[in-house]
Design goal:
single chain; mainly alpha; 5 helices; 44% helix
Length: 170
């Protein structure tokens, strides 16, 4: 019998060394055999510093005088579209950035809350008196005039106080 040199366990050929399994590339590195992506930094084995947290936030930037006037006017005329929501949003968003806008938005918000209460009362009076109480709605014409006067005053940078107002929000 002749021995076959191709047999793996033949005495003439040593056994091959066991191969190490290939390791996967490190996270963020390109696949083996490919150059790194443009602009990509190689991983150094140390964690990179992240953004700092917990620092004190910067104080809000104050509004310019023209922005103050614009937001104050919007707080006064916004209720024509969305009732008390406009002065409420303006007051909450800008009260720390401008004392003028804070005061005028609060004034407009208080007036609009009063107007909502007055509208509910007027509707009840009108329903109870079978429509005769509808004359109460003429008071809302005065409210519209006051809102326009407030917007004009705020547009000039002057504060405005409604002649009839309950200050629910101090």
């Amino acid at each position: 019998m002749s021995e076959n040199p191709q047999q793996p366990h033949s005495p003439q050929q040593p056994e091959p060394a066991p191969q190490q399994p290939e390791q996967a590339p490190a996270y963020g590195s390109p696949p083996p055999g490919q150059p790194p992506y443009q602009g990509q930094q190689q991983y150094q084995g140390q964690p990179q510093p992240g953004p700092a947290y917990g620092g004190a936030p910067y104080p809000p930037q104050p509004l310019s005088p023209s922005d103050e006037r614009m937001w104050a006017v919007l707080a006064q005329v916004g209720p024509f579209v969305v009732s008390f929501v406009a002065p409420l949003v303006i007051w909450l968003a800008l009260k720390e950035r401008s004392r003028f806008v804070e005061q005028e938005a609060k004034e407009a918000l208080n007036f609009q809350i009063l107007m909502v209460i007055a509208q509910i009362a007027a509707a009840i009076i009108t329903a109870i008196t079978f429509g005769i109480g509808g004359i109460v709605y003429f008071a809302f014409i005065a409210a519209i005039v006051f809102m326009i006067l407030a917007a004009v005053a705020n547009g000039k940078g002057a504060p405005y106080r409604y002649p009839v107002n309950i200050r629910f929000i101090k």
